[in-house]
Structure formats: C-alpha cells, structure tokens
Design a protein that fits this description.
16 strands, 12 helices, 2 domains, alpha+beta, globular, 8-stranded mixed beta sheet, single chain
C-alpha cells in the first residue's frame, strides 16, 4: 500500500511514451502482475498488461445514461477515455471467493480455511475517483476490528500508478463529490498525459518511496514550469467538462428529510432491480455466502460472492424480505450511498464516477434523482 512521502514538495519528472513502456517492463521484471486498461467486448476493461500495445491507444468513450460506446481519437492518447464498467475492486475484493472447504474421511472431518494469496499487483491508470473508492473500501474492509484477510493481502502489496484525468465522461460528477479529477494521495506514482502537436509525454509525480525507487529506473527529465502548467491545465479542463453534478447542498440531510418522497415510487416504476448499479460501483462491498456439498456427502465448501441490496434475497430473513418492493430497495441503495454511509464510515459512499448512470439499462441518474427531490423542496417553499 502506498505510503505518504515527507513534507517536502513532490518531485515531478517527465517521461515519454517509451518511458511508460519502460515502467511496465520494470514492474513486470520485479515480479508484479501489471493490470491496466485494455479493450474487450467493445469496452475498456482492466486486465493484464504486458506492454504498451495492450493499452487502448487512440480510443475514447462516449457515455450517457444507459449508453456506452467506444470511438477513435486522432491524437493517439493512451488514457483518452473516462472509466469503463469495471473497477479495481474486482482484484482487491474478489467477486467470488472460496472461504473454506471440508472433507470427511470415515469418522473424521477436516476443515481447511482458504489462505490469502497475494498477487503482487501493479495497477496502472487509477483515476482520482477510483483512488477515493479504494480508500473507502480500505476503511470498510480493513479499518475496523474485523479485517478481511483476503482483501488486506491484495491491498497491502499493491503498487498504484494513478492518473490525473484528461477526459471527463458524460456521466462523471467527481468534482461535486470532491473526489477528482486530480489525484491527491494514495498512489506510488501519478501520471498526467500531456498531448501537443510536438510531443506525447507524461508528467510523473512521486507519491511514495516505492514510487521513487521505480522512477529511478525510467528514462526521464526534470519537469519544467511549462510542463507543470500544462498538467494543471489538463486537470482544470477536465473539471470544467463534467457531465453531471450533485445539488450544492447538504445531500445527506436532504434525503433523510424525504424518506417518504413520491420520487422513490416514481423511479421504481422504471427500475428493473437488476443490480447493475451495485455491480459496477467501485465502493459497494455487499456479499452473500453459499454452502456447497457433493452428492456423496464427502466434501463441503463455503464461498463468498458479490451481492446487492437490490436483490430480494439480500434482505431475506425468516418470514420474508425486509425490503419486498423495488422502491424500498432503490431508496435503501441511494440513501445509504449518499447519506447514512457518512454515519457508518465518515464519508459519502459515492465518488462520482458515473458508472451507475451509464450502466443502468433504463438510464436512471442518481444526480437527477437527487436534484428532483431538492427541486421539489424548493418549489414547496421548504429550505
């Protein structure tokens, strides 16, 4: 896990596209499993990266509620997209994990817990919103008395190459969630892609001693004032081009005042309760466990899998589901994410990545729904 550097000003250097290729090579040579953006199934996904050819060079994405499409860019940008359907939690908080297995031999039963297996990951291209999402999951899964050993094993050893966003998606709203587009902490190295008619380079900022150690092996030059100003312009332009925003008010209090608002039922008429929003969300962490037995009664196992508050079974207890209606499940998700998460974990559960908007089949927009409740209060003369 990245550690903070000293109080000295962060060191910035500049490298070329070839230098980025050298970064990937150095990380792999040091035994790391490099994960970064690749293209599969007409989407940007995170998968193994061996060299520069695996990155989505010259690819952009167009995102809108319920809509996602890749398109070509003419500038050869390697990170010229916003975010795809996957988040880094698929590697840190696995979608499916065996917890233990048991085997019966005669009258004896042996039970073996699944041991955590660190993968020594290196993540390349982690956006500010995603860094904030990882920090949220750190608090949830490692910050209390009960630490998830499987999550911790992957997280502790992860090397993070962050990315200051140079492209906002049509559904992004990280600015209003104070989660981007500039990365602030939690990284080993941070990149800003600098594109000009004369050069294609990357400004690199050191975020940890491990990052400084890796950077020492890369071809680079000191950053000039012009380089730093260009990188700041990239972030500023991205911030100014956000596709969405949350209401500029106390959203947690707004939602808690409106638990019986008719908007919940109105939106539920469209909601399919498919759980897409929670599956693509980089902060959702809900799971269920399943037990499996073979027909001979010799082997048993328990697995953990991602689950969602949108499923009927998730809130099922003896006698039925606690939240049997779609409107109650939708309200639970949204009020927990934007309001009661603060009480539990000290932050919002939303980082403004916009995935839940893009990948909702019917295009339900969490910012639009929040604004609608806010507007109804104002029209009624409520503060």
């Amino acid at each position: 896990m990245p550690e903070a550097t000293s109080g000295a000003a962060p060191l910035r250097r500049v490298t070329s596209v070839e230098g980025l290729g050298a970064l990937i090579a150095v990380l792999r040579r040091r035994g790391r499993r490099v994960i970064g953006p690749t293209i599969a199934d007409d989407a940007i996904i995170y998968d193994g990266v061996d060299d520069l050819d695996d990155l989505p060079r010259g690819v952009a994405d167009a995102q809108a509620p319920g809509s996602y499409k890749l398109s070509p860019r003419d500038d050869g940008a390697l990170f010229g997209y916003a975010v795809g359907p996957q988040s880094w939690k698929k590697f840190l908080h696995k979608p499916l994990l065996r917890l233990w297995r048991a085997e019966r031999k005669g009258d004896d039963v042996t039970i073996e817990a699944e041991r955590p297996e660190p993968q020594n990951f290196a993540f390349i291209g982690v956006r500010a919103c995603e860094l904030n999402a990882i920090a949220i999951q750190d608090r949830v899964l490692m910050g209390g008395d009960y630490v998830d050993p499987h999550y911790k094993a992957q997280r502790d050893g992860a090397f993070i190459v962050a990315l200051n966003c140079g492209q906002a998606g049509g559904t992004c709203f990280c600015v209003s969630m104070k989660a981007g587009p500039k990365v602030e902490k939690g990284f080993d190295l941070a990149l800003t892609e600098l594109l000009s008619p004369d050069a294609h380079e990357f400004l690199i900022e050191i975020g940890s001693p491990a990052g400084a150690d890796i950077l020492a092996e890369l071809p680079s030059r000191p950053a000039t004032a012009e380089d730093i100003a260009a990188a700041e312009d990239v972030v500023a332009q991205t911030a100014a081009s956000m596709g969405r925003r949350m209401p500029d008010e106390d959203v947690p209090a707004l939602l808690m005042r409106n638990l019986q608002h008719p908007r919940w039922s109105e939106t539920a008429q469209r909601c399919l309760s498919c759980a897409n929003c929670t599956m693509v969300c980089p902060t959702c962490f809900c799971t269920s466990v399943e037990d499996h037995n073979d027909l001979a009664g010799v082997e048993s196992s328990r697995t953990r899998r991602w689950d969602s508050c949108f499923t009927m079974d998730y809130s099922y207890i003896h006698g039925g589901s606690v939240r049997p209606s779609v409107s109650s499940r939708y309200r639970q998700w949204m009020t927990h994410k934007l309001s009661t998460w603060h009480e539990q974990f000290g932050t919002s559960g939303c980082v403004g990545c916009g995935r839940c908007i893009t990948w909702c089949p019917v295009g339900i927009d969490i910012t639009e729904e929040t604004q609608a409740i806010s507007d109804s209060e104002k029209s009624a003369g409520r503060p």
